[in-house]
Specification:
The structure is a homotetramer of 282-residue chains.
Chain A lengths: L1 E20 L9 E11 L4 E3 L10 E5 L3 E13 L1 E5 L13 H4 L14 H8 L5 H15 L1 E2 L10 H7 L1 E2 L1 H14 L4 E8 L8 E8 L2 E5 L10 E7 L8 E18 L16 E5 L1
Parallel strand pairs in A: 7-8
Antiparallel strand pairs in A: 1-4, 1-5, 1-13, 2-5, 3-4, 6-14, 9-10, 9-12, 10-11
Helix pairs in contact in A: 3-5, 4-5
Chain lengths: 282, 282, 282, 282
């Protein structure tokens, strides 16, 4: 399915400095960036960084003097997903995980899975099918955590959210990841453009490693799972910030959008209760 | 300098399970593993995992039934280091960091550098030479944090230690890393065998990325910097645990040692006050 | 019912200093201290402090020089309790609380009820009878938190325990208190001697203010509710420490016991599922 | 000195509920409330609660139905203070503290002095005069913590602020209290009306118990110490909230002011470097 994605971000720099942006649609075998355009106004030297394991396309922008900066990115992206049937998924075994996935079991800055071990097992340990575990914990987050902005901040972690039970997409994703890892299911953070997200913003959700694939989950249930264009994956928000700012540079405004690029019929896909179809962006 | 390193670890498994061990001396251009021997008693299938970016040599051991397990590792390792002069090191610039190093600026599970930004700048922001900054913050940790076991645990983080001011080598390293990152200096956790560490144990310290190299620092000052054999580096202890245990397996006892393998004169190297020589394991 | 309570505590003082002990059985209209004896060996000046609102009988001991100190307390205490029927208890209303009880709704050091508001309401908000709420949350703690020493410490709070789900009587009590306060039920910490507690130690549980009385609850279910001799109540463990130590004084060993003083038939009382009888020490 | 204090607070109640307000000027031997007026519009039943130990004058307001509520309080208050000379104050001794003051040594919700023990002694342990210790730690807070709203919230504690080093008057006071208690100096939270505070708001600072009196300190240095009208004291903000809300009631707007009521010359008093005069509101 083809989507037009767009963002425009403005910054006010009062000093020289560096911006590391993470807004490009990722290029993967099944997410084709058909066209894209980036403009930096005023013109500044920018450099695309070779990402580790193809998980993001960082762009580093050098500001050599104070300025008002406007960065515009638009792309036409074709995202192909597959639906896998996980109804016969056996219990997750560490012995069968590839080495490149193992570190997604480790706790990270915002996902202190080491502290959630007992809670995760008390709540979800009785379920034997790991796909069903992740669907169930995602539903549990959706039912217990209130989606409301202004109550969490850049330092809020899964350990906070599991008790305070309020937050935004970032907090929902961190909690989902921490619970997965506590259940010995590798999980990673996913940022992207999201079809018709309201209010318009970048979105965050998460992927769990199940049956040899990264399967997408979104405890906010705010957008269809097949309406996401991947920007980056990483351990948590610390790895995948939309922008890392070095210097006296202030973010001022932002626009984001993600629209269908073709007239064809889009069928929003969400997980249904009791279902075993999982969505995989290869 | 050649060292004989040795460890023997015993586990009591009451179920099947998996051990992921991180005890092999790392192979790098300048750390040569001249010989090594691993024995698992009783014999079990073990697999060396291809590590990400050569930062560790994980070994995965499958336990298919309950057993008493004894793992013995010994190696003869030649570690070559260099002393670099950092007296004219310019201020750290994000614009000059390679892409593969950038993520060592991110906060991690035990090193919440995002929370230490103001404290780090209040204490060390006046220093312009980044090498001097790291030497100074290492000294500050050494002077203010009491080295005492039993007061910190597996969940203690740099955010705790900076205030509670008590802990072990792991806590000293986490605090050093968090302070470096808060000062925009990439930093990573280092585990290794340490010459004549008392009481005998694995050691943890940290590396800061300065002038294009990873330079070694140890806020505990318990061992000479040139008496370390590197096992692994990672973001923090979550990435470099000596053992990750999956299943009902209990650690029981451990022995560790690191001795000189040759009669030649070993001159212990520590940073001296006001000096600008930094030790680099290439 | 009459009980013989006993404790002997030993300290090693390496300097002068002050001990504030909180080990005397409290004197209340319904807890009669029939006889008691305190010995300090070697003899030191000790002073009983007039407690705030009769909630504890602090004893301050002055150490004027280094010494080995042995403090022995024994008492014969008659504790009278009542069983109240709470089957028709209306919803708790702040408007009907006496002024002296209001501050037991506030969060305290170990009971951060402000952070547990949503969790408490998600779990127990559907219950209208406040007695049933407290019985249910006490059962929830008992079922979800593992009783095991060595995993929590003097800094562990209800906010930790609600997620880490492991701890000792102190942690169980803190979590019970925090959940009550989050549900607008005043709650306070209770320390005491406990009949046949194994291993022998002081015990901690909590009281909730229901229908005009302080009703006793114990999420550990380790001892019968009618087998407790009250030492002190307070906001949490910070107010009711068995000993506060000022100076270089180390606690070395302790003995505690609580035995029936009469041959009469003792019927252990625990809350039963679905029951509405609450135990009140007046 | 006579001051006119004033506040007007508006609430939007969408349900019945209870407000517990803490806005009345306290009546003490040396703070005389010469006249005061409270209006609740629309008229609602309000009850002044007998406070514990005269530390606050809580007012409980019952809302029996949804409404828009406007509460107006104005008073003419004469606050008398004394300046004491603490140049010869001996070291603080627990043995000489009255029983009613002892619990101000305990850690509380926002002042986890138990975690700051080593830090406090490392920074201020070398000072022998307790008054000088508190002046010095107050200056340290003033120099290291940035006064900026929007970075801390209702859950921010001294343990956060000591590292994050940003906050508002409430956070400055909590950190001051925690450091005092860690140094075995009883300390308590103080809320009040503050002369010409900008932007206009209620103010928070703290009192330390020194030489038998509660001495006032304000690490924000935003207002003169002799320009404060005391509303309440307590362990921390949890005890002295301007308003505790029970029910679906939203705070909407607030005005606060504190002006001189007489033309006489007001000489603002602040602690001067190296001085030993401490301000005491009896």
């Amino acid at each position: 399915m083809k989507f037009n994605v767009f963002t425009q971000m403005q910054y006010e720099a009062r000093s020289e400095g560096t911006l590391v942006l993470n807004i490009h649609a990722l290029r993967t075998p099944n997410q084709l960036v058909l066209s894209e355009e980036l403009t930096i106004d005023p013109y500044l030297k920018a450099e695309e960084l070779i990402a580790i394991q193809g998980e993001s396309r960082l762009m580093r922008v050098e500001l050599t003097e104070p300025c008002s900066l406007k960065i515009t990115y638009r792309a036409l992206v074709d995202n192909c997903y597959e639906l896998h049937d996980f109804s016969h998924l056996p219990e997750a075994l560490v012995s069968q995980l590839p080495a490149t996935v193992l570190h997604y079991l480790n706790p990270s800055r915002y996902c202190q899975s080491d502290k959630l071990y007992r809670l995760a097992h008390n709540l979800f340990g009785y379920i034997t099918n790991p796909f069903e575990q992740v669907v169930t914990l995602t539903d549990w987050i959706h039912q217990n955590v209130q989606y409301l902005s202004g109550y969490s901040n850049a330092q809020t972690s899964a350990f906070d959210t599991v008790t305070e039970q309020i937050g935004v997409c970032r907090d929902f994703a961190h909690l989902g990841i921490a619970l997965c890892r506590a259940l010995t299911i590798p999980a990673r953070y996913f940022t992207g453009y999201a079809y018709h997200l309201k209010p318009a913003d970048f979105h965050a959700c998460f992927e769990a490693y199940l049956g040899g694939n990264w399967v997408l989950f979104d405890a906010t249930k705010l957008v269809p799972l097949n309406g996401l264009i991947k920007i980056a994956t990483g351990r948590d928000a610390a790895d995948t910030a939309i922008a890392n700012i070095f210097g006296d540079i202030n973010f001022t405004t932002m626009e984001v959008s993600c629209e269908l690029a073709e007239a064809e019929n889009f069928e929003p896909f969400y997980y249904e209760a009791g279902g075993f179809k999982g969505l995989v962006y290869l």
